[in-house]
Records
---
Amino acid sequence: MKTAIETAALTKRYGAANAVDSLDMEVPEGSIYGFLGPNGAGKTTTMKLILGLVKPDKGTVEVGGVAVTAKNRLSVLRQTGSLIESPSYYGHLTGRENLQIISMLKDVPQSEIDEVLHTVRMENQQHKKVSHYSLGMKQRLGLACALLGRPKVLLLDEPTNGLDPAGIQEMRELIRSLPGKYEMTVLVSSHLLSEIEQMATYTGIINRGRMIFQGELEELRMHSQKHLLLRTQDNDSAERLLKERQVPCRNQAGALVLPELSDERTAGLIALLVREGVGILRLEEQQKNLEDIFLSLTGRQVSL
Amino acid sequence: MLFKCIRAELMKLRRSFVWFACVVIPLIPAGIGTANYLFYRDTLQGQWYALWTQHTLFYSCFFFSPLIAVYCAYLWRVENYGHNRNVLMTTPVPLSCIFFGKLAVAAAVTLLTQLWVFALFTVCGKYAGLPGLPPAEILFWCLRGGLGGIVIAAALLLLCQCIRSFALPIGMSLVLTMAGFLFSNKGWSLYFPFSLLTAGMNANHYDDQLAGEMLRFLGCCGVWFLLFCAAALWLLRTRDVKA
Ligand SMILES: Nc1ncnc2c1ncn2[C@@H]1O[C@H](COP(=O)(O)OP(=O)(O)OP(=O)(O)O)[C@@H](O)[C@H]1O
Ligand SMILES: [Mg+2]
């Protein structure tokens, strides 16, 4: 597996605390890497470290095999496009003028402007002043700027922040289409697991500056265990009866949580409860969803 | 690449009030200076030179360096909107081009301002009934003041790069110009960058105060200029980008 971005023991200290703490990140080439973490986890700082906007206290970063140092600054920036802490735009200029400025600085032919405008579907608004744009349009303009020059690696920091559901959907589809269309690697951050789940092929979870999980989403799902949820007319008696039969169970929010059991065992226990006069209301199999895994990994409430 | 940066900076100045300030603000000291001249014309001697003392008295004191500060503050202000600094600093452009692109534009607008000031001076002189055209020496002083202005532009650009406020650098430029007078009065005008401007313009004087010191003036301008540019580039290179 070739990596597009690789960090080793990357550390950035602000005051007494490490905003990024010995971070080892590997972004496979051609992937959409979902960079997930609650507020203040260090996502933006990591992305800034990758781009050289912020200097690390320890550790190294490589983008496309090139070490991110002051000396290599230009060759790293030439192969990356980014939208960090959006929105960023010159409000007194039109969308097109904004793109012209960036294309000049990126040394990209003006013809590419029409192409990126088409990609983000903004041809019709290009001559309006950006300060009159809606947030969704500003965000798409930011993406268009990042796409200019067809970078090999794209870094997007919470690109759907503040968008309405339709805007989120649109942005997500746009991002998903990029690796196929431009052969890009995309690193996209979010504090919403559902979002990462819908667009990423690979994921890293960061909490308090540390990487607590990195791998394919499928791998993350395997962390989840199945269990059974039982509701009866008399949960207390049911709990007593089950415990007498050595079935570990606990009463949680009006339902009994049981471990996964074989079919025969389940049938036998249900028959027993019915015999003892405990009416069965519901029996369902439950799988911990990713949100629960995320919560148990970070030990923190995530904003939804 | 520097050329492209300059073009990008000029685009950012589109529809900005910088042009308005550049045209309108010099009208004020020109008006006050001319009124003063007309009021005291019996006691003032030296015709064009006398008018020059009156024009520059106010212009170099209160208007020139804050005007340059407006240009510099605006050039960085557009980067302070939202998170534009992130975008600027991730374009594949050498940091020196980012700085000198801005400086070139600030310097050009500063020189433009000086030419406009000279044009106003000529018009006011004709209005006051002065004979002929202003002496070439005064045009030379005006442009020499512009050179001092470029050094100030480098200093203020450095300041605006560090201070995110728009008004603070402008206020500071005013205070520093005042401090410049203290140095000028002691005859140390070449050793304080903010008095290079008044010294260059030969403000409020009849005879060239820098006569015979031209080389020293140029040398001091050069040294201060290099110092400010080096400091700005060093900060751009080593500091984290805060957007
Ligand atoms: N310039 C700075 N000075 C001091 N502390 C900082 C600075 N930038 C970030 N931090 C701190 O570093 C930590 C990580 O911040 P960062 O912005 O990287 O988080 P994040 O994961 O992007 O969060 P969010 O989801 O809120 O954007 C935070 O605790 C923050 O307070
Ligand atoms: Mg962030």
Note: Residues 136 and 166 of chain A are 10 Å apart (CA to CA).
---
Amino acid sequence: MQIKLWINDKEYVDDISPDTILLDFLRSKGCLSVKRGCETSNCGLCTVLLQGKPILSCSTLAVRANGLKVTTIEGIQDEASEFGGFLADEGAEQCGFCSPGFIMNVIAMKNELKNPTEDEIKNYLEGNLCRCTGYMGQLRAVKKYLEKYSDMKKGA
Amino acid sequence: MRYVNKPVRKKDAMSLVTGKPVYTDDITQGSSLVVKLLRSPHAHALIEEINTERAKKVSGIECVLTYEDVPESRFTTAGQSYPEPSPYDRLILDKRLRCVGDPVAIVAGLDEKSVDKALSLIKVKYNLLEPLLDFRKAKDNEILIHPEDNFVSLVEVGADNKRNLCSSESMNIGNVEEELKKCAHVIEETYHTKANNQTMMETFRTYTSIDAYGRLNVISSTQIPFHVRRILSNALQIPKSQIRVIKPRIGGGFGAKQSVVSELFPAIVTWITKKPAKMIYSRKESFTNGSPRHEAEIKIRLGADENGIIKAIHMYSLWNAGAYGDHGPTTVGLSGHKAMTIYNANAYKFDFDVVYSNTMGAGAYRGYGATQGFFALESAVNELAAKLNMDPTVLRMNNMLTESSVGKTMPTYYNEELKSCTLDKCLKKAKEMISWDEKYPCRDMGNNKVRSVGCAVAMQGSGISSVDVGAVEIRLNDDGFYTLMIGATDMGTGCDTILAQMAADCMDCEYDSIVVHGVDTDLSPYDTGSYASSTTYITGMAVVKACESLKNKIIDAGAKKLGCSVEYADFDGKSVCNIKNNESISLIQLANDNYVGSNNYLSASESHYSPTSPPPFMAGLVEIEVDKLTGKVDIIDYVGVIDCGTVINPNLARVQAEGGIVQAMGMAMYEDIIYDRNGRMLNDSFMQYKIPSRLDVGNIRIDFESSYEPSGPFGAKSIGELVINTPPPAIANAVYNATKVNIRSLPITGEKVMMGMLKNA
Ligand code: FES
Ligand code: FES
């Protein structure tokens, strides 16, 4: 069947089989940042944005994105480097395999929650598993990143 | 030191955080055969008949392989130096199936759909055998897991396949029986730790192809590229010279990838068909047929005098190898040697049996057996403290290795001399950080909640003494930058970075002037691989040595140019200077000159091994909250204070520690591989096998009490494995301090705590 969608603001028209999973479709279009860590929608590695909202691309059919906009980390390199810098300064990207999905969700959170508390941050990001870091370094990075924005707001 | 001991960013950090395609599946995107396995539904069976005719006819299928198509000599998939202590007990495909999921057939085809279809069309007639699932009954059972005649054990580890023994040994120091008789207090208990899965986020995966020279090229997510080369050569019965192994970025390993897991199958497909092939393990396969931690039952007898001074320790470890013996004989050794060494005593006894059974073959998992040993021994020590009505931190201070033990010979640690230790300072600092004295043993919070604290200490090694080899090559390039060729495997741990930090300080140059290269067995100097906490200590020393010899070569070359003798030439990282007349030549000039009409391309290669494996130490204290109505345990705060010698990169060391502690919290509280009556793993997904999320771990705080290890690079020891050892016993201790319930069998679930409280009431 035919679908038309935008991946990182670029239009794609393609003929796909109806059972194509969005994750596989995205990887086939060169968005290799999108990772699979499970088959049960538990790990969050495959997180991408659909119309700006985080979704699990492993449990979304590609047709669900028909007519819509998908964003992967390839499409927001500047924002990713900015937050990624905070992560790198904590040493909190260890193997990095969970990083793209985690970062997509952090960016979605930043757009969605205003001045979140620590608990709100943890709750928002709960679905992003990481086996390497123990989460503390990620939390330090997220807080510093958000602080920068609240400082900017305060300054303004 | 400009870079050592500084929180330098990882060399690969920015490409990882921007999602660059650097992992195995990302860099092998061209077309390749999809490889999958038909796996055994039975825990113990013989293949009586296997018919692959219909499967082979499915369009798109390239080949279907069965036990008739593979070499008949056995090998081990354990990544260890040759001769491997793990018995040679495997075939790529075997007629005898020893656990659920054992491979029955390999199918390779153009796409997943055709492969799946072919898999469903293979007809197998199984001769079902009675499975041996309880490892406690395995030794000398009449059901034999490895009755085959071509079972070989290369090293004398007490293996006897006719008794289901993968390994069996014993060690005696002093007279434990005599000492125990004299003891005022003896703790005699059995502790049980379960099999856990490493669950690195990137599952096992391998891509294979044939290069222009007809050689087998392997790109694999592995911790042990050089061992993979040897194991594939053993398995396929082809010369090592025909194999090249490349390690890209890896999405975690934790020991799982210290065995060959996904490599065999695409490799044989490619070798037979000469076509590129790829195998990606599903999460489920990584659960059901990975290389998990060995389940263990450890009996302890611990004797002390009336003042709580430990006199004798006896440990007996019963170890479940499962279907295959990977890492069995070696992991078990650490359960005793590492755990017992931390306590002074007059007599020690350690004996063990590693047994085969019809459960999934185990492997290496961070801590490598020490983790099981420390749960048992630290729990026993906590029980001793309770019996004496003593604060367990005080009991430890009186018995464990401390700074004043430096210089002592450690009888249970192969008579190595202790050269660095600040464990007493670690424990002291940890107590302050968590306010132990105010919180011990527990506080009633009202509302049926009790908060309590718990304690454990641990050690590990730094590499395998006299076995592990690390080598690096460092080259001076034009314009004066250096290439550091590393054979050790960065699996996210950041070893490329810390080795570059060391090199930058050794060469007095900018960190960015050192470029590193991941492992390629054709290019990289030989390294045993990244395991046994060896990289910082062993390969780090190779960096120090290689830089020293390159510096000498630079000075030599500079002196020649300057026309002075070497004694008068000095190198400060930027130029070589004749100290007599202050004439100098810059490194850039020197490097560039060597690239034109010169026989003087400068490079140095050094390898390093160590006759010792100096232990790093850690004190781990935890605060938990127990709900007295349900038994539910919540972690509030975990404090870890570590002596890893000089900390090469404080950020990376801290995150290593936090990550290891969280993994161990999972092991302590819920991670548990369970089988049904037929030996099928029940909880084979993240849905059922829960690992800690960020909501489960409370707060974790890490600090360091650095000693200086004279035999290590810049005074460093290891950190990677050590950090997983304290949480299970510390949490068990805290549970006791809150409820007076001793949980001796992991995981520490709310149900067990509740049942214990009801029993006590
Ligand atoms: S791949 Fe695990 S949640 Fe999508
Ligand atoms: S950094 Fe490895 S899984 Fe998160």
Note: The pocket of FE2/S2 (inorganic) cluster (ligand 1) is lined by residues A 36-38, 41-46, 56, 58 (CB under 6 Å).
---
Amino acid sequence: MERLLRLAFQTPFKEQEVSSPKNSFLESIGEWGIGFCRAVKKGNIFIHQCLSSWRRQLTGRAVYRSKDFWLILSDCGPKSILIVSLISFMVGLILAFVGAIQLKTFGAQIYVASLVTIGMTRIMGAVMTGIIMAGRTGASYAATIGTMQVNEELDALQTMGISCTDFLVLPRINALLLSMPILVLLADFMGILGGCFVCVAFWDIPLSEYIKFTINSFYLKHFLVGVFHGIVFGYIIALCGCYFGVNCGRNADSVGAATTHAVVYSIVWMIVMTGLLTVIFQGLGI
Amino acid sequence: MMKQDPIIRAEHLSIGYENKTIMKDLSFVIPRGDIFIIMGGSGCGKSTLLRTLTGLIPAQSGQIWIQNTDFINATPAEKLEIRKHSGILYQGGALFSSMTLAENVALPLQQYTDYSSDKIRQIVAFKLALVGLAGYEDYYPSEISGGMRKRAGLARALALDPEIVYFDEPSAGLDPISSKNLDDLILQINQTLGTTIIVVTHELPSIFTIGKNSIFLDKTIRTISAKGNPSELLKNPPNRQVYEFLTRGENHEERTK
Ligand SMILES: Nc1ncnc2c1ncn2[C@@H]1O[C@H](COP(=O)(O)OP(=O)(O)OP(=O)(O)O)[C@@H](O)[C@H]1O
Ligand SMILES: [Mg+2]
């Protein structure tokens, strides 16, 4: 025991660096501000790079392997169908349940159909799909690209003169931009189906009535607004996932952090964008 | 171009990340056709130096000439030209996991040349055979061992017949035999193709078998503390750190007594 202790104290502590003196309060606010501005700058540069990659793609100069694109697309399209269907069915069901209890007091239960239809098509379909895809695809983008960073694959790309926004980010953005509208469509449909299930099974509303009210309250503009939200969300999820992947540190811990950040930031930005878009659409009278 | 031209020359180079300087005042010359070892303790900045030389991170100050081009102020086109003539083997191979070995090796060829796909396939098969991986064209990186992954990474680094090949710790994580085989491969490439080879390593046997020239990065003084042939350095160690490093920590004072 004594020898063990002696050994422990013998070990030289050369490696230890002098810890920096504790910052004052104002200083740390300043540091935080500088860090924040740096992050904003980095984010903007990334968005700019993605946009210019997109432009290059339009002129056919951005190269990525179509095989990669199909793999990514199949992962964020067909393989998400089940979970998106399930969740939006449940959301429609919940909307109908909660709505019907309130509307029952006025004897206006049949308007549940309108509530579910408008709610799902205008916003809920897109928001639910967005949140699912952020957790599923955004996280997987960040983890995949983050792991590539850890394995120095991104360095290898860069030294081969291949732009990583062209090669890795662009197919991922495209895949989400393509699959989000379709998934939103599916979510809308499944939500309405969920509402229908509740009304017919629990509230004794005839199926034909429900369908009639659904068709009456289905407006193309609500539907298009929903799909537009879906596209915007797809873009946000892909950007956040890829951004945190590309800016991941070089150890396994940082991949975990990147994944968490990707999901949290995509959800936050989706909600912020929903607010903004709602105000804009209100202003436009849509 | 004369044969004696140095292929890389660095003068008063400072390297580091953002506002943190890791090494400063690095000056060295790498002759054409050399096997140049960058050695030093863990975390002293060897990989950082390699990243600076390959242009992954900017140098903080100082100058680098690669093949008579001022690398730091080079235009993107000049940088691309230099990169086309250099190959890098990363620590873990850095193969793209979504591609087969053949596709990995073919990627730089597709990027930099306009060879037909037939010709690319031939070159790929040849390079894989060179590193002893003939027949593994359609394997994915996850299906082969770490040592094979490194050799496949080497095949990719050699795809464009580069004039300079950088190795980041080629023998890390390999058993003694595999790492000796890799050393033999490095020597063979250097002798037959005349490729300049720059190796970051702390594997003593490799340092002595392959190294013709070397620099020793010292973490305490943050710069180069010794230069020259590794065996010569062992015979006449210029300072304690180098001696301890090259003898795995034997006490310098005891020897000089
Ligand atoms: N991305 C980074 N940002 C800031 N500092 C870094 C970064 N990467 C490495 N460092 C720091 O730079 C120093 C040198 O790192 P480097 O990876 O070059 O060491 P090394 O000599 O290659 O070590 P090893 O032999 O363990 O690979 C380390 O102290 C490390 O903390
Ligand atoms: Mg290293």
Note: The interface with chain B takes residues 65, 67-68, 71, 148, 151-153, 155-156, 158-162 of chain A (CB under 8 Å).
---
Amino acid sequence: MRYGMAIDTKKCVGCSDCVVACQTENNIPHGYARDWISETVSGTYPELTLEIRSERCNHCDNTPCVRTCPTGASHVIEGGIVKVTHEECIGCGACVESCPYDARYFHPDGYVDKCTFCDHRVKNGQDPACVSVCPTYCMYFGDLDDPNSEVSKKIATRKTKVLAPEAGTKPQIFYLI
Amino acid sequence: MNEELIISGRMNPYIDPHLEVWEWQIPLYLFLGGLAAGLLFFAAYFVMTGKEKKYPTTVKYGPIVAFIAISVGLIALLLDLKHPLYFWQLYTTIRIDSPMSWGAWVLLIITFVALIWIFSYLKEAFPKYNCKIGFISKLMGIFIEETGDSWEWKYPWLKTFEKYAQNNRYAWAWVMAVLSVILGVYTGILLSAFNARPLWNTAILGPLFLTSGFSTGAAMLMIMSKSHEERLSYSRIDLFLIVIELFFITHLFMGFLASSQVKVEAAHYFMGGEFTVTFWVNVIILGLVLPAILEAMELLKYKIPVIIPGLLILWGGVMFRFIMVEAGQIIRYLY
Ligand code: SF4
Ligand code: SF4
């Protein structure tokens, strides 16, 4: 069992529905976000290409954030989901510094918070909130170990990339390009 | 050309527009840690080599300053925590993978070793009982009593412990020397362990911070010492350490320039970019080159008040850590 995502950059229109869905589902305090949209423009005018991505914690296979945590608050659960136990977190910031994607932030209550792949929904067989609301159906969530899951098939048939592979974290969110 | 923009309006405090998770507390903690490492190492080293007579300030008073530095450093670390009341969870596990974790342990252990050291030298450091600071003198009054023009411990177990500490100084010197090197390297490893921050992620940071910490320690002792001979030898030691430091810094940037794109860009922040002036003026010129020249002149028998190169080195040490921590958080992977 290895949870992961595939996100189709050709379909994403950058509407931010996933961001709002996450904020509502997970009670994120006002002004904070666990996921976000970024736009990359590359090339030289007039040969410009635009890519829009919905980003969040990549639930990496090689987790620097878990390694540098001094208390063990950051940990990996079944299915490779990276989580933080709020009661064990002292708020030292080591994990925030460890993440090349800046996917972690300080909750105003003093602990570090981040995307959980909505493990409370996944347990019941539902998709994460962001995936379930996307109006263009550009996100796919599922078991990467199962070659017949929709997400595995997408990754197998489309050209993919991961973000900042040179940082060596082995991200498990694949962007279809 | 690659421009990137976060358009969903993510504005997580401390994270956006760029990381600022570590503000002044961590660089201060790193500086004080390095300073303490230097002070304790020299004290231990001169006892190990049997030269404690020649270096009275180093051996008797250095560790006291180190103890104060570590205490203030730990307070800074505590202030960095966003959940400070939970800090004790640092000491419920040891995680070797996490420098934050084993560093906190090393700091705790070295504090105790320094205390034992201070204890064994207390009578020599303060032969007379005439403390002017009210609360300290009250506090000490619980443990000691005046005897003529010196003083003695009130309780026999303190006397036994003092005997033990004094008889085993040589062994404790070894323990303290090893721990102080670990502490000095740790102040660099704390940063270099972060793969995600191109500026920090280089193995040279450990030895570089160690050298820099030792040279701030030597500078402090140079300022504190009243013996001309002791001061002169710290001038020499500092000169030597500065040369090594310059060598490491050159290596650091050459390494970046020969590495991947993000690291080349990291180096450019210091060579024409945002941090060029702050870094070159404060760290290289004021903190290293100028004191090196002054110390060389002193060794050539010119009269230089030691306080000037000493303070310059300390200033360079502080600035070095502040700049490295700040710049390291700004320089990131772009994807
Ligand atoms: S994206 Fe960041 S927080 Fe998430 S697992 Fe990877 S390194 Fe850790
Ligand atoms: S901030 Fe919390 S979760 Fe992150 S490394 Fe520190 S203790 Fe662990």
Note: Residues 17-25 of chain A form the longest helix (9 residues).
